[in-house]
Amino acid sequence: MGIRPRALALEAARRAPTALVPCPECAVVVGAAKLARHLDEVHGATDETHEVAELRGDDRAFVVPLVGFGGLGFVASFALGIALDRERLFAGIAAAILGTSLGLIGLAWFGGIRSRVLLAPETVELRYALGVLQRRVRLAGATIEIGSVTASRAPAGSNDVNVPHEEVRVGSYVRVSDGSATITFAHRGASLRKRWSDRGIRSGPKRSHVDVRLDTPALVVLEHALHAAGALQLREAPRDAS
Ligand SMILES: [Zn+2]
To answer: Would the pTM count as exceeding 0.90?
Structure first.
């Protein structure tokens, strides 16, 4: 049971014929009255009942449990080795745990581990850490916070490790929370503010840790689910628009 992005967008357009609606396929914002034509002409005759149940993105949430698992596993193995008088064996196990954790952290860091975002009319669920962990947010009444994703990098052209790193903006995030669970989605394209009304959206701090990185068309599908649940509002078209 997924959601129907085209049907949701067209329904939104029918209800608010003077508003702007983000295209659920390409994220371009079009006048509500022109959405149906845009979908037909630009994206072909995809069935309106076409369902999207799952989005895929780069798993960034996995890093935190991996650091915990690697650190605790390493220490616990050494302690066990000493307690059982089998230091050598457990030193090997400790090294294997640390190596595996570091390998997976590296893989996750470079986008080699994907997580799944499951969409349903009432919830969005993140399945991460190779499907072992999950987090589910109820969409009705969800709060939305947006802001910049930053990373710390050595200044361009510098090979000196002692140079202080600078904070650079690498994208934007959309943080969706229902009060008990939160998922932070990162993306590279234009801010959500360009597609939806400011009403109800909070500006958050800069963040370097996010849970999952989506491409913009995938994010817009999620945004239509949030709009259908009342968490996002359409933008009004400027008065003088043709
Ligand atoms: Zn489009």
So the answer is: no
